[in-house]
Amino acid sequence: MPDSSKQNSVLDSSATAKAANDKNSQLQQSPFLKACRKEASEQTPVWLMRQAGRYMKEFREIRSKVTFLELCKNPELACEVTVHAQETLGVDAAIIFADILLPLDALGFGLDFVKGEGPVIARPFRSDADLKAMPEVNAAESLSYVMQALKLTRAGLKANIPLIGFAAAPFTLASYLIEGGGSRNYENAKMMMYKRPELWHALMDRLVSFTIDYLNAQVEAGAQVLQVFDSWVGSLSPSDYRQYVQAHSKRLLESLDKSVPVIHFGTGTSTLLPLMKEAGGDVIGLDWRVDLISTWNSLGNVAVQGNLDPCVLLADKEFIKLKVTELLAQTAARSGYIFNLGHGVLPPTDVDNVKYLVEIVHTYKK
Amino acid sequence: MPDSSKQNSVLDSSATAKAANDKNSQLQQSPFLKACRKEASEQTPVWLMRQAGRYMKEFREIRSKVTFLELCKNPELACEVTVHAQETLGVDAAIIFADILLPLDALGFGLDFVKGEGPVIARPFRSDADLKAMPEVNAAESLSYVMQALKLTRAGLKANIPLIGFAAAPFTLASYLIEGGGSRNYENAKMMMYKRPELWHALMDRLVSFTIDYLNAQVEAGAQVLQVFDSWVGSLSPSDYRQYVQAHSKRLLESLDKSVPVIHFGTGTSTLLPLMKEAGGDVIGLDWRVDLISTWNSLGNVAVQGNLDPCVLLADKEFIKLKVTELLAQTAARSGYIFNLGHGVLPPTDVDNVKYLVEIVHTYKK
Q1: What is d(CA A270, CA A263) in angstroms, rounded to the nearest whole number?
Q2: Complex prediction ipTM
Q3: Which of A99, A164, B70, B341 is the S-S candidate for B66 at Cβ 3.0 to 4.6 Å?
């Protein structure tokens, strides 16, 4: 006599596997993942950096009760704002609510977000002693709240909506860590490159190793896509990028789970884009300082994302339509374009304008 | 009988004219002015943006007694810091000590420099009413202290050292005026472009007219070269530059006294450089984000200035020598290169490093 309980459990598990496969196939056929693979699609996919953010009333309400870090560290709340933004805007992907600097908290450097000042690192990294004192920390464990948020969010999102995990690229992470916060000139980071190259490279190595584990754990926890934010790499000359950064970004990008596409993003990168493409990534992020089509042509065989100036969303609807339609017309003939801003949604943006942008992208006939 | 007093006066005046011509010929044959005209020269000329600044002990001593604005408005002190910096460093040109935002003070918008915050404009420009209320002000009169400083400085400088006058380009001036100070995203300036283009263009028109008079008066007061600072224009997309800025910069540059060369400078401008060259200027400023030689080749027949990352001066002498020599070797074969940083000298810079840089440039054998 068959063991029915065992049979049931097998049936259950095979049903779960089938559901997971269906879900996976729905995800894989989503316009967003198709664009990452440069496959043709009826519709241009669209999502926005910082789509869950201060410009949204519901987000500000949550933020009035918890600090920014508390929000990042609370998986239920992080899931709530992530799913809410995706559903409210109707965008083609969700990005997990988190911050690129959380690893600095996990590594014990003392991260805080000070009103009006942005991120502040209590103990900036400046010396060999700081390298020696840097603890060996397990990324997935020390940032388990991000993994938990990803699991909850994956379960909470519609089956056809890809979830994006992310981390800072090593230059951007190191520059915050060395400067102790945001910077205009990156004087301390560049001084370390120029005067202490071996210390710089050792730090980059450590950050890359941590970030590989962190991002791969995010895939395991439920992310279908990864974005690597080299937000401030545009402060470097091409030769400095080549000498101090490229190999580290390359090691990171080459070591990520091959089952998911990776978006390699930066701003002010017009002269760095060929080198960033060499470093890796299935999709290259473009800000508004470059002409989309000529830049894409010069990059060659890769998908691209972005290009709209976030300030366009501060204008009126007529102007937004004009600018969005221009980009859609330019990109209609080629597969592999993901509509996005060149950087995050700005706090004074009207939510209605963002919804309107998504509507224009979705109703545009190629 | 001849009127000897008249004869003497004629002799005096012809002697003065001869002295002025000699002086003028010495100036015209200086390596700096020859490079502006793309003429061959034994030596690469060098000067540095913000060469008179906080990184110098003598400057800090003066600044401990007067505010920044008081220093700008005191012709004797402005002359002193200008001449002192040129002589201390041994650079090939002096730039008059002043600030690009002084016209906003002259125009009554309320300019102040707040410690740790930078420039603050008390009454930012936002509306038609602000345009209507903008006074008609004579540039040379309202900024007579700058003219006085130029006269004193011209008289105080060695006869072979050109004196640079300067002003902000209209975008950079307008963006400070609209934002009310420095900005990361230029949200208010771009909002005005996008939502109130006629108001934007009217403001730019007014600023250009004022700046034409201001710069031409500087030539009359003793400047041999003019630099137009479009420091923050790199925040714009190429299409926005073309639509909202280029014609205004062009009108400014075309209306300047043809007897002096003009340097057209910006940062983060890699994708804007061809459009800036179209707008005008005898010399185009390059920051460190572009590769010098390929950029110069693509710009064609124009002199160029800049390209060294100011952070290089925070490194040690060996590294400085390496980077400076690289640029000198790259440019040795072509006439029309002026050595400079890509932006101003940073406050933590060691004066000895700046002197060392000048020495390397001057002792380099082409």
Answers
A1: 16
A2: 0.93
A3: B70
